[in-house]
Input
Amino acid sequence: MLWVKALHIIFVTSWFAGLFYLPRLFVNHAMVQDKTVKEHFEIMEHKLYNFMLPLAVLAIVFGLWLWLGFGITGIWLHTKLVLVAGLVAYHLYCGKLMRDFKSGKNTRSHIWYRWFNEIPVLILFAAVILVVVKPF
Ligand code: HEM
Output
């Protein structure tokens, strides 16, 4: 069980690296006008987004394995699963925003992206407190 938990934490951490960095690229991308620089951001965002998908899948697979394979559960876990659903929605919405940038349809400002970038931070705090402290 400890190997599964270790792998769960490794892939959760790696997934979050992408969830923190991709919106930060959007912040900078929304501030530039130069076409060459914009294209550079598009390549970086695309590569990072493709890299994040297997990390998200593995984080969730090992989490499900801990839950369904070892029977670890509780109200804390059900609450955490709601947050995880929010993270998956956030991940997929980043994909939509990335495609908007690529097709020149982005309408959001760098300030909007700065606030958007804070959402995974709040979810991380809540999810880790739920799973470690298990308040309910
Ligand atoms: C479908 C998704 C997920 C499921 C089913 C899941 C389930 C679990 C379970 C059952 C444990 C073991 C808890 C224990 O041993 O007391 C665990 C540990 C953990 N999970 Fe998740 N998890 C998921 C996603 C996540 C995400 C997205 C995060 C990060 C925000 C996360 C962070 C952690 C951490 C830090 C631990 C280790 C806690 C400890 O060792 O006390 N998990 N997870």
